[in-house]
Amino acid sequence: MSILVDEKTRLITQGITGREGMFHTEQSMKYGTKVVGGVTPGKGGQKVLGNIPVFNTVRDAVAKTKANATMIFVPPPFAADAILEAADAGIELIICITEGIPVSDMINVYKYLKGTNS
């Protein structure tokens, strides 16, 4: 298996202000991952975990932080859109462990991602 995260990885967390997003962001930081920001619509301008900036959109986060990876912790009805938003913003590595995403949503995501660098 190839290594997907290395010293050049600049990670954001979509859903960073939620319980799971906050927990996994903190764990990633403890393991040495360079976490550069997070995204929660409507909460842009805040800071969490000391100094991690929160943005309203992935596009804003990428523009300000040069993020190239994201981990997604949002409820199933919003997960497919979160993945598509990340791809549209140019994120190369998208990690989403959300359970219960409708299969039809993920089929559309799969088809869309085939035409991107994500």
Report on this model:
This protein starts with 10 loop residues before the first strand and ends in a 5-residue tail after the last helix. It is globular. 31% of the residues are buried. With 118 residues, it is an alpha/beta fold. The model has no long low-confidence stretch (mean pLDDT 96). A six-stranded mixed sheet has the order 3-4-2-1-5-6, with helices on both faces. Helix 1 (19-30) links the parallel strand 1 (11-14) and strand 2. It is built from four helices and six strands; from the N terminus they run βαβββαβαβα. Helix 3 runs parallel beside helix 4. The chain has one domain (11-113): NAD(P)-binding Rossmann-like Domain (Rossmann fold, 3-Layer(aba) Sandwich).
CATH architecture: 3-Layer(aba) Sandwich
Number of helices: 4
Question: Structural class given helices, strands, pairing?
Answer: alpha/beta
The amount of helix comes to 25-40%
CATH class: Alpha Beta
What is the average of the pLDDT values? 96
User: What fold name stands as the CATH topology?
Assistant: Rossmann fold
Instruction: Give the SSE string.
Output: EHEEEHEHEH
The radius of gyration computed from the alpha-carbon positions, rounded to a whole number of angstroms, is 13 Å
Distance between the termini: 18 Å
- Give the full name of the CATH homologous superfamily: NAD(P)-binding Rossmann-like Domain
Spatial order of strands in the largest sheet? 3-4-2-1-5-6
Low-confidence stretches at least 5 residues in length (pLDDT < 50)? none
